[in-house]
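tool_call: predict_structure(chain=1)
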Amino acid sequence: MHQTSKAKRTLLCILAALFLLCALPFAGFAQSEDARLIFDDNGDFTILHLTDWHCGYPLPALHKQLVLESLAEAKPDLVVLGGDLSEAANEDQPAAIKEICEIFVQAEIPFVITFGNHDYMHGYTIDEMFSFYQKFGGAYFIGTDEQPDLFGCGTCSIPVYAHDGSRVAYNIYCFDSGDSVAGKGYDSVHADQIEWYREKAEELKDANGGEFVPAVVFQHIIVQEIYDKLFPAAQKYSVGVREYDTQNYDLLPIPNLSNIKDGYIFEKPCPGYYNHGQLDAMSKNGDVRAIFCGHDHYNSFTVEIDGVDIVNTPSVKPHIFLRKINWGSRVITLHEDGSYESRVLTALELADREGSAITATGDVSRFEFFLVKIWKAFADVSMFLWKAVTGFTFRF
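tool_result:
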């Protein structure tokens, strides 16, 4: 009898130890299967896209307050940092990235980064920059460099599972769109990354009963086709021409603004010089619902091209007065049925909320926001009247 009790106690100790060992992975976000990204019971999954901070070190109070209030308002399941974050001196980069990461670690929100061209300019390799986010983001930084031999760093695929966890219902692709092309202009998503995307999409398709899994894409630099949609091909005597690869575009007269579905355009888009076929590949598959970009600080438009929405998210950094209409972030809601919706969450909107401390930082006054409201009302009325008269949607 004594031996039986002792055996039972031993067995219980072993089971307790096994239980503790099994429980250990759940302490870290990225370590547990149950910590997978998953749709809520309503079939929704929320992403907050925060891009182009261009901030110094320490992080300016206004930047941080805008981010904190954006998180509180959007309540995201995932944050995507769109690149061009820290502009700190080279020696301060690790500390600056740590300060940024701490926002999301303390909020206990998973996050990932798609590098921008300015992230290449701080005396570190892009792989070293990525390692800083991994180090300081800990379990909450869920980005990976899925295939290190690909162009850039941080290109990865992030699945979002159905609310019951039974399948991948949506996929999030993150791409490093690089820095610049010597003597030409900006860089873009490269051919090897596009081939990786094709293989990944097929892999997900096979696991999904032969159907492509709906997807969204995040990258810093916008696709080149934006010019095909907005600007006419340059004529012999055109002025204000912009060149991309083998094509010239006439920037005068104003672009074909009727193709903008929503939002504002305050500057000419700056895509990569070379087009490696990214949009063609994604349009052909039909899985990608939207490509979300940053880079062009003052734009917040959505333009549909070949079945894919090209969406520009404005900068987190404060703009000059007339461009503060756009200043903020973008809230994206994925739906389990394969659709999505998005909207710009502006600083103007947040500053109007009770308890907001955006104007309390002293960098932007309530009076300035009041003037921005008047300007926005004028811009919106002008757009409505222009459309009523001409049949086109006008954007400033």
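agent: Residues 1-32, 390-396 have pLDDT under 50 and may be disordered. Proceeding to next step.
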